[in-house]
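Consortium newsletter contribution from the modelling node. Members have asked for a concrete example of what our holo predictions look like. Here is one, prepared for the zinc ion complex that several groups have been discussing at recent meetings.
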Amino acid sequence: MVMGLLLPISTFSMTTLCYCDSKLAFVRCCEPLLKGKLLAQNAEALMRSRYCAYVLGDFQYILDTYSQAKRRDLSLAVLQQDANETQWLALQVESHQLTEPGATVQFSAFYRYDGQLYKLHELSRFIIEEGHWRYVDGQMLDDCGKLRLGRNDSCFCGSNKKFKQCCGKN
Ligand SMILES: [Zn+2]
Ligand SMILES: [Zn+2]
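And here is the predicted structure:
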């Protein structure tokens, strides 16, 4: 029996770290949510999984996890158009608070667009609809925008590595 060919693929996917910076394996973190096998248990989990969907270009998941009211004004084409040129590099979740009737999550996400680095610093609002956490909207905080980061500066993701050896590698 030839089994050698299958092993590396499954080993790789079992150990790939989740894109949401949880330090957990992707298969044990956001993948089950993206595949619809598990529901997000709270707003932060949904936010993290939506970030992964952006990284992976899973726009159907992005669309499905918007609130019903927002979804009416959106389409896959619109989401793709906005996001196709964007390369997501890192996520840092800063806070998660329950509010009435939903929750807020504050995070920083870092991305490259047209050769330039950017920071998105957002306070997102979430609600529960029919037992599912959904994204409503986000407020962009003041320090959003272009990042000036040299290749020898420390990386924004908090790894203590130089940017060029970390998120700036590709
Ligand atoms: Zn994750
Ligand atoms: Zn980094």
